[in-house]
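Predict the 3D structure for this chain.
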Amino acid sequence: MKQEYIITVYSENHIGLLTRITIVFTRRKINIESLTVSESAIPGIFKFTIVVNTTAELVAKVASQIDKQIDVLKAFYHTNDEMIYQEIALYKVPTEALYENNTIETLVRNSGARILEITREYTIIEKTGHKEETQALFEELNKAKVLQFIRSGRVALTRDPIERLSEFLKERDAMLDSID
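Done. Predicted structure below.
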């Protein structure tokens, strides 16, 4: 049965790695729903957060294949329940829509969004949340004709109190020290 999974990949910052990772998904005909790359809490280590909708068997195979890539330190996969995650969305609406009535102001307050900038021509609104929440606000704001809309990729942290990458690196370093 297909469901949403979050794959986290840790690596150093190497040219071409993103291409090699995405090829793994292409070969298995799995669409990437969201992809975010940023520095992690460990200096010099980058974290890829990849969201896919697939089966448990396929996500395990993909994570294993990514794990074998040169330059990848470790790849993990999780269900949404095992992660804390958010996305950010920005909406540009005509400022005149704010003055016509208080609908947009009420939407912003009730959705936990905030206004980032107001000019004569447009107003920028920011909303952080799950995709369903940011999409629902878009649909409501679009009644006032959203001029532009963008949603980020997902950012996610595990609910597990132990950083599995740190544990993996400690074990790897201990193994390397024992070889020397």
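The helical segments are 17-27, 56-67, 95-100, 103-111, 131-141, 164-179.
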